From TrEMBL, chain A:
<dbReference type="InterPro" id="IPR001663">
    <property type="entry name" value="Rng_hydr_dOase-A"/>
</dbReference>
<dbReference type="GO" id="GO:0005506">
    <property type="term" value="F:iron ion binding"/>
</dbReference>
<dbReference type="InterPro" id="IPR043264">
    <property type="entry name" value="AhdA1c-like_alpha_C"/>
</dbReference>
<dbReference type="GO" id="GO:0051537">
    <property type="term" value="F:2 iron, 2 sulfur cluster binding"/>
</dbReference>
<keyword id="KW-0479">Metal-binding</keyword>
<keyword id="KW-0223">Dioxygenase</keyword>
<dbReference type="GO" id="GO:0051213">
    <property type="term" value="F:dioxygenase activity"/>
</dbReference>
<dbReference type="InterPro" id="IPR017941">
    <property type="entry name" value="Rieske_2Fe-2S"/>
</dbReference>
<keyword id="KW-0560">Oxidoreductase</keyword>
UniProtKB/TrEMBL annotation, chain B:
<dbReference type="Pfam" id="PF13577">
    <property type="entry name" value="SnoaL_4"/>
</dbReference>
<dbReference type="InterPro" id="IPR000391">
    <property type="entry name" value="Rng_hydr_dOase-bsu"/>
</dbReference>
<protein>
    <submittedName>
        <fullName>Salicylate 5-hydroxylase small subunit</fullName>
    </submittedName>
</protein>
<keyword id="KW-0560">Oxidoreductase</keyword>
<keyword id="KW-0058">Aromatic hydrocarbons catabolism</keyword>
<feature type="domain" description="SnoaL-like">
    <location>
        <begin position="6"/>
        <end position="143"/>
    </location>
</feature>
<dbReference type="InterPro" id="IPR037401">
    <property type="entry name" value="SnoaL-like"/>
</dbReference>
<dbReference type="GO" id="GO:0051213">
    <property type="term" value="F:dioxygenase activity"/>
</dbReference>
<dbReference type="InterPro" id="IPR032710">
    <property type="entry name" value="NTF2-like_dom_sf"/>
</dbReference>
């Protein structure tokens, strides 16, 4: 773990002992944000990079990010996956500008230093100098070693076709990092079936990156904010729910079984987003067909700290990559996928249900909006506090939607790592 | 311009484009589905997906009914910060005319203005359209909004 010197936060400090109050400055303070990058994104944690299906052939590459750092995910000649930092070893140029492609080697445009797909330095123009009047002049010193001068290569974990990486080579295994419970929900989706990328959505959300983790650790809001969830029973107070965490409480699973039929009065009384007489003119958008591999739950939303949300909500599947860009803004990149053995009908169904998600989605567009509103409130009063008391003050696992236990669990972990 | 396309028909197409833009900039959502055929396709899609043949779209509607469902969503279910939108649309370029179907392309830029804020460039791209005549009136059989903008500024709620 990173042991950068602890600087006193320019903020009033943590209120009390617990995590049922979270001060606004955790979302706005620039020093806190820098330390979060160092401790969560650049050390001690596996970060999401992409899907193996995005780079099927040797030489295929696709750019991604770890925190704010640009990296390249590449398929090597022997079929392995490497993740290399996109920073030239010579003078730091972020040399790879394409989003993706296929290369035999990477060449920096500035002075044409060449790297192989493993990131090893293979060529330096005029390394031995320039011949002038029968003499070699200039060039690198005779004792210069190319060995060990390559691109920064990250530690890589691939499981079920999903690629994670870390700058921290002393990191525990990906399996240990997730812990058995969360790993079992990860494996439920990524059980070895080949994946098929359906496409991308990108949005820039003016809020702190943690707010997106919290949004998907918050089962309290979907049945209130999202009419489609409450009206069509996808996620609401009478849905069978369980809230699970890893032993460190950094990752979580929100597991739900959709409610069918009309809700009882107390489930929706006073819930203005419930529209009793709403029906779709074209019901194909919610043509839900249960799949065997769900094994019961109709939705499992996984938050893998710090950088990833894995969505299975009925037939729609996506990886949502959190890419922080400062204390008050992050990019949110969605990769929707299917399985290679899906029928055409199933792929069409997944694509139509994607209308619920993403920057325009019926149950997602408004999440970005409310995150922006929260951030606006935080910026005005950094010493004010969020109230997180739904379901009590502790962070035990729970089985109902009126609970903020997963967010409290995340802040227990956050406080430990951040030393506040 | 394609010789098969008479000036008269082109003027009518311009009318369709102008009315569509006016309706969605005025927030006249009920009019929006009426510019389309019953079994229309409407897509709002990032350029990367379009160019690489990846089928995912930001919005993907397969019928006028789905457009009407979207209108209900804008009005009743999608919580959002209100904003004005203003489209600037180029003259449509005729790509082909085939048995009464016009295939067209037009550039667009959408500006967004939130209450109390300055106006910003919101979404930039091009329309790829297929226009047919139904009962005498021109309608979009399909309208694909393929956008260059690499990042959506938080959310797109209203139709492009
Ligand atoms: S900075 Fe890359 S070769 Fe010089
Ligand atoms: Fe939500």
């Amino acid at each position: 773990m990173n042991d950068a010197p602890i600087t006193l936060p320019s903020s009033p400090g943590w209120p009390g002992d617990g995590v049922h109050r979270v001060p606004y400055w955790v979302y706005t303070d620039p020093d806190t944000y820098r330390r979060e990058l160092d401790r969560f994104y650049y050390a001690g944690h596996w970060c999401y990079i992409g899907l193996e299906a995005e780079i099927p052939h040797p030489g295929d590459f696709r750019r991604s990010v770890v925190g704010e750092r640009s990296v390249i995910m590449v398929r090597t000649q022997d079929g392995g996956v490497r993740v290399l930092e996109n920073v030239c070893a010579h003078r730091g140029a972020q040399f790879c500008r394409e989003r993706q492609g296929n290369r035999k080697e990477f060449v920096c445009p500035y002075h044409q230093w060449a790297y192989d797909l493993e990131g090893k330095l293979r060529g330096i123009p005029y390394r031995r100098g320039i011949r002038q009047d029968g003499q070699l002049n200039g060039g690198m010193p005779a004792d210069f070693q190319m060995e060990g001068r390559g691109l920064t290569s990250l530690k890589v974990a691939v499981r079920g076709g999903v690629v994670f990486a870390s700058f921290d080579h002393s990191l525990e295994s990906f399996e240990d990092y997730l812990g058995p419970t969360i790993l079992s929900y990860f494996d439920r989706v990524f059980d070895g079936r080949k994946l098929k990328v359906l496409g991308y959505n990108r949005q820039r959300i003016p809020g702190n990156w943690k707010l997106m983790q919290e949004n998907i650790k918050d089962p309290y809001h979907p049945g209130l904010l999202h009419s489609w969830f409450v009206t069509f029973g996808l996620w609401r107070a009478d849905s069978k729910t369980s809230l699970k965490m890893d032993p460190h409480k950094r990752h979580a699973a929100m597991i739900g079984v959709r409610s069918v039929g009309k809700p009882a009065g107390d489930v929706v009384s006073g819930v203005t987003s419930y529209k009793a007489d709403m029906s779709l003119r074209d019901p194909r958008q919610l043509d839900i067909v249960p799949e065997e591999w769900w094994k019961g739950p109709t939705a499992v939303m996984l938050t893998l700290f710090p950088s990833l949300i894995i969505q299975q909500q009925v037939n729609s599947l996506s990886m949502r990559h959190i890419q922080p860009r400062g204390p008050g803004v992050f990019d949110f990149v969605w990769t929707h996928f299917a399985f290679e053995d899906d029928s055409d009908e199933m792929i069409q169904r997944r694509l139509l249900q994607a209308n619920l998600f993403g920057p325009s989605g019926y149950v997602s567009a408004d999440d970005g909006e409310v995150i922006e509103f929260s951030q606006m409130g935080f910026q005005e009063k950094p010493d004010q506090q969020c109230l997180l008391e739904m379901g009590g003050h502790d962070s035990e696992e729970a089985t109902n939607i009126a609970s903020e236990t997963l967010i409290r669990g995340m802040y227990e972990y956050w406080r430990r790592v951040m030393g506040v | 311009m394609n010789q098969a396309l008479e000036a008269q028909a082109y003027t009518e197409l311009l009318q369709l484009y102008a009315e569509y833009t006016a309706a969605i900039d005025a927030g006249d959502w009920d009019r929006w589905p009426e510019f389309f055929t019953e079994d229309c396709v409407y897509k709002l899609q990032p350029r990367e997906n379009h160019e690489r043949g990846l089928p995912l779209a930001t919005l993907h509607f397969h019928s006028k009914g789905m457009l009407q469902d979207r209108v209900y969503g804008i009005r009743e279910t999608l919580f959002h910060d209100p904003y004005y939108q203003r489209h600037v649309v180029s003259l449509p370029r005729v790509l082909a005319v085939d048995r009464g179907r016009w295939f067209l392309e037009a550039n667009y830029a959408v500006f967004r203005t939130k209450l109390g804020e300055i106006s910003t460039v919101f979404n930039v791209g091009r329309y790829l359209d297929e226009v047919v005549r139904v009962d005498g009136a021109l309608k979009f059989a399909s309208r694909f909004c393929i956008y260059d903008s690499e990042m959506i500024p938080n959310a797109i709620i209203y139709p492009i």
